[in-house]
Design goal:
The chain has helices at about 1-5, 55-65, 120-125, 145-150, 165, 170-175; strands spanning about 35-40, 40-45, 70-75, 85-90, 95, 115, 130-135, 135-140, 155-160. Helix content is about 20%, strand content about 20%. The protein is built from 6 helices and 9 strands, in the order H-E-E-H-E-E-E-E-H-E-E-H-E-H-H. The strands form 3 sheets. Strands 1-2-3 form a 3-stranded mixed sheet, covered by helices on one side. A 3-stranded mixed sheet has the order 4-5-6, with helices on one face. A 3-stranded mixed sheet has the order 7-8-9. Helix 4 (about 145-150) links the parallel strand 8 and strand 9.
Length: about 180
């Protein structure tokens, strides 16, 4: 078992405070779809639907001990998670719905090549594809327009019909929650 062979640190966000009732929004709340990792920076989306300020504060406090910076990304109120608004395909290339980002594209991505999608596209989970590595991206047939743009930039696109899963509110990244890419030998 992987956890038996590595020197791993396992952590869990504190149990949410529900002292004000089961519908309290105190949290802390932090959901994987709101977290995108780029080197030593964690981008965390906050729309009011999932992760909250207390969850972001908890993550910032924790990860500062390991040299990570946490950047809050305010989202349009209809966007569930940050990975519904941004996909980091590879260093320097992203898929993005600028309309979903209330403060605009984070400064770290200003010079990146961008494939733009609409707010309507984000509602169908267009940005929630899976960058397998720098050269391969998986998305749904419905988003061939994104695939065409990726292929122009040298990325091989694999298409998988995920319409049923998307109808339940999740797509490729939701199904995998990738946090780290590495080359395995």
């Amino acid at each position: 078992m992987e956890s038996d062979n590595n020197k791993c640190l396992y952590l869990s966000i504190p149990k949410p405070d529900i002292s004000k009732g089961h519908y309290s929004e105190e949290g802390p709340f932090l959901e994987g779809g709101d977290v995108l990792v780029l080197d030593k920076t964690l981008f965390v989306g906050r729309s009011g639907l999932a992760s909250n300020g207390n969850g972001i504060r908890w993550l910032r406090n924790l990860m500062s001990n390991f040299g990570y910076k946490v950047v809050e990304v305010p989202l349009h109120h209809t966007i569930l998670h940050l990975d519904c608004a941004i996909s980091l395909v590879r260093e320097g290339l992203m898929i993005v719905c600028e309309e979903a980002l209330l403060d605009g594209i984070p400064e770290q991505f200003k010079d990146w090549d961008k494939i733009h999608v609409t707010l309507e596209d984000t509602s169908r989970l267009a940005t929630n594809g899976l960058p397998v590595n720098e050269n391969v991206y998986i998305t749904d047939h419905e988003f061939k327009f994104i695939g065409d743009e990726l292929e122009k930039r040298g990325v091989k696109v694999e298409y998988v019909d995920f319409k049923i899963s998307r109808s339940f509110g999740g797509s490729f990244r939701c199904s995998t929650q990738p946090l780290l890419r590495s080359d395995f030998e």
